[in-house]
Amino acid sequence: NASLLRDSDGELMGAVETLTDITEIVQKDHQIDAFQQQLRSEDGFHGIIGVSASMQKVFDLIANASESDAPVIIFGESGTGKELVARAIHETGVRKKKLFVKVNCAALSESLLESELFGHVKGAYTGAYRSREGRFESARGGDIFLDEIGDLPLSTQVKLLRVLEEKVIERVGDNTPIQVDARIISATNRDLKSLVDEGRFRNDLFFRINVIPIRVPALRERVEDIPLLADAFFRRARLKSSKPIRGISNEGMSCLMVYGWPGNVRELKSAFEYAFVACHEPLIQPSHLPPGVFRDQEQADKAGRF
């Protein structure tokens, strides 16, 4: 930077020049650009990572579902990424310019859940000091994601069935029908057919939401995706850490490949967060992984020696 110096009469009397070494700043900018490119390249399909045949089938179903306005239900174990699939359907569909509204059906009591879904009028119950629109009204023109729909109470199932059949809701404490236009995407880690047989889930509702079923495979069913996922989670963890960890060792990767991953992709991500705390070496070793993962590797090694 340079500036001219002038006296009170405006005559030039000198100049001041400031020199700053910005090499480190430029390097940081290049590093940030590289990380951003890495994160963009790992997206795969709208944030879902996978190259296995089973995941390619899921991607195809997402693309087909996004072109439809019919209800979608996503099956899969906890931690497989069902919400990511729901968001991908929304982001690639005709409703992408409207809201994507999420409701966890297992997180609320029956009375609160109905108010959350359908809204309520002032005085409908103790604490209802003002009228409030529900999630179905908020999602007008968009998609509403009903997570853990298998935990929906039977009384709420009846009202949801009416929404699917008549496209109307009634707020809690009111009997005025309100037209709603929101596509329902649901998800569950439970066996809905068994719940139907047990009388805990309505058969007619099951058939209404099971128009476009998508099953997200467990991580143990797509082992070939583990290195790709591991690389993505490693780079994300490195962005948050100041540790000079260069990567994961071959032994560490072998450990990841033989583990059963009952918590699926979510557990794998947590494993790298743990490893970045435990590791003080250039490479992540099996001993730096969570105890459960490491013990499985030790047991596999012992079995191989006998």
Write the layout of secondary structure elements.
Elements: E1 2-6, E2 12-17, H1 23-41, H2 53-66, E3 72-75, H3 82-91, E4 100-104, H4 110-118, E5 119-120, E6 132-133, H5 135-138, E7 143-147, H6 154-166, E8 168-169, E9 178-179, E10 183-188, H7 192-197, H8 203-209, E11 212-215, H9 226-240, E12 247-248, H10 250-258, H11 264-278, E13 283-284, H12 291-305
Parallel strand pairs: 3-10, 3-11, 4-7, 7-10, 12-13
Antiparallel strand pairs: 1-2, 5-6, 8-9
Report what the structure shows.
The chain is of the alpha/beta class. The chain is built from twelve helices and 13 strands. It has helices at residues 23-41, 53-66, 82-91, 110-118, 135-138, 154-166, 192-197, 203-209, 226-240, 250-258, 264-278, 291-305; strands spanning 2-6, 12-17, 72-75, 100-104, 119-120, 132-133, 143-147, 168-169, 178-179, 183-188, 212-215, 247-248, 283-284. The strands form five sheets. A five-stranded parallel sheet has the order 4-7-10-3-11. Helix 2 crosses helix 3 and helix 9 (226-240) crosses helix 11. The N and C termini lie far apart (72 Å).
